[in-house]
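Annex B. Sample input.
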Amino acid sequence: MKMKTFFKFKAVSVSEAGDYCQIMFHDDLDTDDEPYFMIQSQFEFPDDGECHFESHVEELVEDSKAKTVSLSKSKLSLSYGNNPNHKVEIEYDLQGQDFQELALMLKKMIPGLKVGV
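Annex B, continued. Sample output.
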């Protein structure tokens, strides 16, 4: 059974450029070896809903569909991957408009997202 990976980040960046979307969880350290977890999605070409998951933890890097996703104001829990299945839990602190921006982008990137309060 695959263990869950836990992260706690200070910052969340949400961006969209054309047909490409990105969410980056990080500590805003502006260093090359900064810990991070990133989700990218593109809508230019059909890809059956796959996202690109990337992290400073190399074993978490994969292109696949999200299997389960749950979002609250302080935590994102998700599982993705084919072999093995990755389970990631990310804690952060977002308020008001920043949380709404994250929730809207995740819903666009990963249909079926469950948002709690």
